[in-house]
């Protein structure tokens, strides 16, 4: 029997179905169903024979889904219905007992929590590989000077190791965010039923243990309405992808003939269909461009959740495509960032030459005067005047400054002291970079 007297309009069916995208939740759905069936039997809600039939049937359904022979049907609305329908086809009536004390509302929330947990664990793993790569490449280029930039103007010289480690700390913060996401996914929705709890003496902690949850949701209404863990994942992914977009942007600049600071490996470059000489940094460009896509998914889900009355509404089905696309996109971005950094050949001469621009030591010259007793603001003005004189007369800063400020100025303008004098904690002096590398290694060893 059915509640309805006419079949669904085909357009409604197309709008309503989620099978096209939620079929990838099948591993979570099967795992959940196994745990649920075991719990039902342990509580005496279904018999042990029914449980065994269900578990055996689920093995068969799983095998079909895994090898691609699962017979999906036109009117399977979603993966949950498809699995239960197929289970019942295979084992008969006991299949109909699996949905006892369960609603698709707590079922889907549980599947998505399991999926998001795996994605958050995977992001932490990929970030760790990225961070290990950064440490290794920083070590190999520990004392290679290049200009540090503000406003994309040469500002003060730094070591390449120091610059690379800046990415390390961003990635470390990303990793912490994904750890928090993982924690947020460990509160079990299942057992909430449709929204109010269920009419059976279930054991939610049994299910939680089986599926690796730390706790059970304390409120059935919140349990089925909650998608915060998806928002948390998308927020962490958006920030992480935004970091990678800045890396992509720098790689594009650095790989240009104008900068010529690095050469990307051929494996991470593409050619032009018309200009034979071109070697394009497409991967880095796409790192730049993928970030807003994930930010868009975050914004879209905020839109879905905004002002949504409690509890479950079909709107919540729209969480999945935003989540899935973000997970896939972020995975590609993290792997590509790691591949490009691991394979990049840095150009020591080009970077050193850019960093040898004397004007880049103007702050250091001002600081010399400060150490001789003049207030910094006055020194800033004095050196600004010297820079202007040098630029306008076409002479070097040393030529202009040394006669006025003495030999100490010449020493300051000698290349290595610009870097080695930045010895404050977290600065670019080698001693401090080594200290930083040690911290970075300690952070990696903690995990
Ligand atoms: N496909 C649905 C979703 O992804 C599953 C839950 C459907 N629940 C319902 N009461 N119609 O949200």
Compose a concise summary of this entry.
With about 450 residues, the chain is mainly α. Helix content is about 65%, strand content about 5%.
By secondary-structure content and strand pairing, the structural class works out as: mainly alpha
Oligomer class: single chain
Helix count equals 19
Q: What summary fits the major beta sheet?
A: 2 strands, antiparallel
Instruction: Tell me, briefly, the overall form.
Output: elongated
Low-confidence stretches: none
β-strand percent reads under 5%
Ligands bound to this protein structure: arginine
Percent range of helical residues:
55-70%
Reading side by side through the largest sheet, how are the strands ordered?
1-2
Report how far the terminal alpha carbons are from each other: 56 Å
The number of strands is 6
Mean pLDDT level: 95
Element order, helices and strands? HHHHHHEEHEHEHHEHHEHHHHHHH
Radius of gyration: 30 Å
Protein model, in words:
There is one protein chain. The protein is mainly α. The chain is built from 19 helices and 6 strands. The chain has helices at 10-16, 19-22, 26-42, 48-67, 79-91, 104-140, 160-184, 204-211, 220-225, 228-255, 282-305, 319-343, 348-355, 362-371, 376-393, 397-405, 407-413, 415-420, 430-446; strands spanning 145-150, 153-159, 187-188, 215-216, 262-263, 345-346. The protein has a two-stranded antiparallel sheet. A two-stranded parallel sheet has the order 3-4. β1 (145-150) and β2 (153-159) form a beta hairpin. α15 (376-393) packs across α16 (397-405). The radius of gyration is 30 Å and the shape is elongated. The chain binds arginine. Residues 18, 22, 78, 80, 104-105, 108, 312, 314, 316-317 line the site of arginine.
């Amino acid at each position: 029997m059915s509640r309805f007297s006419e079949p669904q309009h085909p357009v409604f069916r197309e709008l309503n179905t989620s099978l096209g995208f939620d079929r990838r939740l099948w591993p979570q759905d099967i795992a959940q169903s196994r745990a649920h069936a075991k719990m039902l039997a342990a509580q005496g809600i279904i018999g042990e024979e029914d449980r065994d039939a269900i578990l055996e049937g689920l093995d068969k359904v799983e095998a079909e889904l895994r090898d691609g022979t699962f017979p999906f049907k036109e009117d399977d609305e979603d993966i949950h219905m498809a699995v239960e329908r197929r289970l019942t086809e295979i084992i008969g009536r006991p299949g109909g007992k699996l949905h006892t004390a369960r609603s698709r509302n707590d079922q889907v929330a549980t599947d998505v929590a399991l999926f998001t947990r795996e994605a958050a664990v995977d992001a932490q793993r990929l970030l760790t590989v990225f961070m290990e790569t950064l440490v290794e490449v920083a070590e190999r280029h520990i004392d290679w000077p290049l200009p540090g930039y503000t406003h994309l103007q040469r500002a003060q010289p730094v070591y390449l190791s120091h610059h690379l480690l800046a990415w390390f700390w961003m990635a470390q913060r990303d990793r912490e965010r994904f750890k928090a996401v993982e924690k947020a996914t460990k509160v079990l929705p299942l057992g909430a039923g449709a929204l109010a709890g269920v009419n059976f003496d279930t054991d939610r902690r049994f299910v939680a243990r089986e599926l690796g949850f730390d706790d059970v949701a304390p409120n059935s209404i919140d349990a089925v309405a909650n998608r915060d863990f998806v928002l948390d994942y998308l927020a962490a992914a958006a920030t992480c992808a935004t970091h990678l977009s800045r890396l992509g942007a720098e790689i594009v600049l650095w790989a240009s003939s104008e900068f010529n600071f690095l050469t990307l490996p051929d494996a991470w470059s593409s050619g032009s269909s018309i200009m034979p000489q071109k070697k394009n940094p497409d991967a880095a460009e796409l790192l730049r461009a993928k970030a807003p896509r994930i930010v868009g998914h975050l914004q879209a889900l905020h839109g879905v959740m905004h002002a949504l009355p409690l509890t479950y509404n079909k709107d919540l089905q729209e969480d999945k495509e935003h989540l899935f696309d973000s997970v896939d996109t972020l995975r590609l971005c993290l792997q590509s960032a790691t591949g490009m950094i691991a394979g990049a050949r840095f150009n020591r001469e080009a970077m050193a030459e850019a960093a040898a621009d004397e004007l880049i030591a103007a702050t250091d010259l001002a600081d010399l005067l400060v150490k001789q007793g003049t207030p910094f603001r006055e020194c800033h003005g004095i050196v600004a005047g010297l820079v202007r004189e040098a630029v306008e007369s076409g002479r070097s800063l040393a030529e202009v400054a040394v006669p006025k400020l003495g030999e100490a100025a010449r020493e300051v303008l000698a290349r290595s002291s610009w870097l080695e004098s930045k010895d404050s904690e977290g600065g670019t002096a080698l001693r401090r970079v080594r200290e930083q590398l040690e911290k970075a290694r300690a952070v990696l060893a903690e995990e």
